[in-house]
Amino acid sequence: PLAVSEPADDISATPYLIKDPVRVARRLAPLVGISEAEVVQRLARRDTGFVYLARRLPAAKADRIEKLKIEGIDVTPGSRRTYPRSLLAAQVIGATDVDGKGLFGLEYGMDKVLHGRDGARSSVLDGGRQAIEMRDVRTALPGKSLGVTIDAEVQQRTEDVLAGIGQTYRPKGATAIVMEPHTGAVLAMANWPRIDANHPGQAPAYATHNRAVDFPYEPGSTFKAFTVAGALEDGRVTPTTSFNLPPTIQMADRVIGESHARGWETMTTADILAKSSNVGAITIGQRLGATRRLAARRFDQWVRRFGFGRRTGLGFPGEEQGLALALKNYSGSSMGNLPIGQGELVTPIQMATAYSAIANGGRA
Fold first, then answer.
1. Which DSSP category does 130 fall into?
2. How far apart are CA 320 and CA 144, in angstroms?
3. CB neighbours of 202 closer than 8 A, spacing ≥ 6?
4. pLDDT per residue over 83-121, tens digit each?
5. Which residues are catalytic?
6. Measuring CA to CA, how many Å separate 214 from each of 139, 194, 345, 346?
């Protein structure tokens, strides 16, 4: 279990019924977790007939308070959310507020399913706050359990590796995904820095984001696999097709070279991908059509078939769709930039999904 509900009660008071706030505070303060002075201050108020002394107090402590039978002190049954694995998948699972409403992550996105529906009860009380009439206005509906594909052990290992990356390079944030390519099941979705789901307020706001789904970035060379995949699928190249490649290639007003200077070199399609050749990937991109315009149209179709420019359908709240340049906005140099992963934005989950399609024999 990654998130569970356990009994927890609200402790409230009717101040005007408390005859000796100091004595009552002395008995309650150790149980409600605030100072005697603060309890006295709340019990001594005369501007209201209701004050909270504690929210979502563990049931064991609430039972002890109830047994004190102090007039004017009420115990209202409820529950609170706890996260047994604390740090594990915290940005994915999310957290709730004191009223049990989801704040972020699956707790927020699936709140209606998990929370159910609160009931409503109308009560008439006498001067001693004893119910003399009570009726249910709306029936409460219990929330449902939610199963996820996250494997806790795979998740833990992924977070351990990612923590090592974070500690070594100190990025502002990092993310990692483990996906089963045959089913698309996400086995791990980790983020760094880690946060404690039981105490999310102790982390900076940006750390609660699930970067795997809400962080668009320029993919760079990791995008070349999809340029090559499209050309392979269209029969424009084979893994052994040979290219005699110049050191640079000119696309409209841009001259694009390699990450490391080289002379003319003969490479196969497989070599181009293995060596991450910019010139080679652009050359393969141009083979997608008889003319530059037709090549651009077919390249755009492959970009969208791999799922870029739209959400994956994972259903996670806050998922970004990235940015796939509209074909009508291509410039003369676009087929120099785009095949090598420049001028477009993707999310980590889009990349994981697209690579899984390759790993699954071309089936999404």
1. -
2. 27
3. 195, 196
4. 999 999 999 999 999 888 999 999 999 998 998 887 888
5. 221
6. 37, 16, 11, 10
pTM: predicted TM-score of the whole model, two decimal places: 0.85
Round to whole Å and give the CA distance between 1 and 213.
Answer: 23
Number of H helices, E strands in the chain: 14, 14
Strands 254-257 and 248-251: antiparallel
pLDDT at 240 over 80: yes
C-alpha span between 300 and 351 (Å, rounded)? 16
Helix pair angle (21-32, 36-43), 10° resolution: 130
- Tokens representing 176 are 């990692």
| Sign (positive or negative) of CA dihedral 38, 41, 45, 47 | negative
Distances (CA, A) of 158 to 133, 186, 322, 345, 362: 56, 12, 24, 25, 26
At residue 271, φ and ψ (nearest 5 deg) are -65, -40
Residue 330's pLDDT band (cuts 50, 70, 90): very high
CA distances from 196 to 12, 192, 239, 291 (A): 28, 12, 47, 55
